[in-house]
Design brief:
It comes from Ruminococcus difficilis. This is Terminase. InterPro entries: P-loop_NTPase. By secondary structure, the chain is an alpha/beta fold. The protein has two domains: about 230 residues, 3-Layer(aba) Sandwich (Rossmann fold), CATH 3.40.50; about 190 residues, Nucleotidyltransferase, domain 5 (2-Layer Sandwich), CATH 3.30.420.280. An eight-stranded mixed sheet has the order 3-4-5-2-6-7-1-8, with helices on both faces. Strands 9-15-12-11-10-13-14 form a seven-stranded mixed sheet. The longest helix has 18 residues.
Length: about 450
């Protein structure tokens, strides 16, 4: 009995959707390639142009995963297609000859983006349709070169390191259709914030969308992929984040992220119930207008049962501002941040400032001399080594006594990107850490209270 393409409602909507650019992101074995390549060939048939491109890491991968697989191109289109894997005497590039209608012939080139010397020679002219398999692993130069030559582009991907340039330059410019936006994980929706490109659509597919997936196959994937690992997060949950080397690999959005409404219960608690006993704030500074350095402000609360909760954050990025921020501006901005949170949550009398930034500390001292302040601006205590800070915070995630409110998207993003150096086992990269550092400045003085249920008073 021949294979059949069984379509969920979302995949039916996908096939009907008319968009110039489509990204298919999601879990492994969600059917993205199977249904995507079928639609792609239909787009090829509709295109007025003769030449089109399928790109994978190499031609062997394209043959195995796209062309020759069950419900691949040869299965789907049978006698309408002919694959010349070694090219022909007239056309040396591997290609598919597609005859969608009598007298109509299309050529679909099969390219490997893993070998720059080969695709540089092969890529030229203008094309109708472009399909990029696992675009998150593709050479970014290839993506730039190929996408500008195509009328229509489709790309598949499994979630990966959200700091990759392909996300900022391409994928995060797309949006899900309104009726399917709730199916997209909040963590990914929070990333889809680059300037919207007209008509670009982001699709998120999971196991449940693949009606052809056998239960035994799904069970095998779930049982063979250890929970809590980054590959589980990427492949099974469909969430972005580096597959290896992540510092906080036990940070879990579902376990450690909460709403403001949830946190407010600790403001209205009665005597004897869990309630906030102290508030703290941290400030990490970097003033470069050339690099992705940020001024990171965080506000936190600690309960009498040992819960540490990041309640708010604020970011200033000189590289994205028309008027750059000076240390004197940071003083005013930080006090405004503290005042807003004092009104909403409570009074953080002690605050902690990056002690490497003497210029900003001097501006705080000058402000206090001239205006007075109810706040104490303390230099951050950095004697606690970075590795020890990481060990403590990872332990609190494990014990589920460290939480972050869901609007703190900059902090959540860093926790999903902050990684160890590839050439050193015990030293994290010096990036994706501004809000992590700011948070650490705030909690270091109170490490004995976090995870402890003996703090009945402040």
């Amino acid at each position: 009995m021949p294979n059949k393409l069984i379509l969920s409602k979302k995949y039916k909507d996908f096939l009907r959707c008319q968009a110039p650019v489509e990204f298919l992101e999601g879990t492994t074995m969600a059917g993205k390639t199977t249904v995507g390549i079928f639609k792609f060939m239909l787009k090829v048939a509709q295109s007025p142009k003769k030449l089109h491109i399928i790109a994978a890491n190499d031609t062997g991968t394209a043959e195995k995963n796209i062309i020759q697989k069950d419900l691949g191109i040869l299965d789907d289109f049978g006698s309408l297609v002919r694959y010349n894997g070694n090219g022909t005497s007239a056309d040396k590039i591997p290609h598919i000859v597609f005859t969608p209608a009598p007298g109509v012939t299309k050529t679909v080139y099969v390219m490997g983006y893993g070998d720059k010397t080969k695709w540089k020679k092969a890529l030229g002219g203008q094309y109708g349709c472009l399909y990029i398999d696992e675009i998150n692993t593709a050479n970014i130069e290839f993506i730039r070169e190929a996408s500008m030559r195509a009328d229509y582009m489709m790309a598949t991907l499994n979630p990966d390191d959200p700091n990759l340039p392909v996300y900022h330059e391409y994928i995060n410019h797309a949006r899900p259709l309104y009726r399917w936006s709730d199916d997209t994980p909040t963590e990914i929706l929070d990333d889809l914030t680059e300037e919207l490109k007209d008509g670009w659509v982001h699709w998120f597919f999971t196991f449940k969308d693949n009606l052809g997936l056998k239960k035994s196959e799904l069970d095998r994937v779930l049982s063979n992929t250890p929970k809590g690992t980054k590959i589980y997060k990427n492949k099974v949950q469909g969430l972005r984040g580096r597959a290896t080397g992540l510092v906080f690999n036990n940070f879990d959005y579902k376990l450690h992220v909460r709403s403001a409404e949830w946190a407010r219960q600790f403001l209205t608690a009665k005597k004897g119930e869990e309630q906030f006993i102290l508030f703290s704030a941290g400030l990490d500074t970097a003033y470069s207008d050339k690099t992705k350095d940020t001024i990171a402000m965080t506000f936190h609360g600690c309960t009498n049962r040992g819960k540490w909760i990041q309640l708010d954050e604020k970011v200033y990025d000189n590289a994205e501002l028309h008027l750059t921020i000076a240390p004197s501006d940071t003083v005013v901005n930080f006090i405004d941040f503290l005042e807003r949170n004092r009104e909403e949550w409570g009074f953080a009398r002690n605050t902690f400032i990056d002690n490497a930034d003497q210029a900003t500390l001097k501006e705080f001292s000058k402000y206090v001399r001239n205006h007075g302040s109810i706040y104490l601006f303390n230099p951050a205590w950095k004697q606690l080594k970075i590795v020890d800070r990481i060990k403590l915070q990872s332990g609190w995630f494990k014990r589920q006594c460290y939480f972050i409110l869901d609007h703190c998207t900059e902090t959540i993003g860093e926790l999903n990107r902050y990684s160890w150096k590839e050439d050193k086992d015990n030293e994290p990269e010096d990036r994706n850490d501004h809000f992590i550092n700011s948070s650490q400045y705030a909690w270091i003085p109170y490490v004995n209270k976090i995870g402890s249920e003996k703090n009945e008073t402040g």
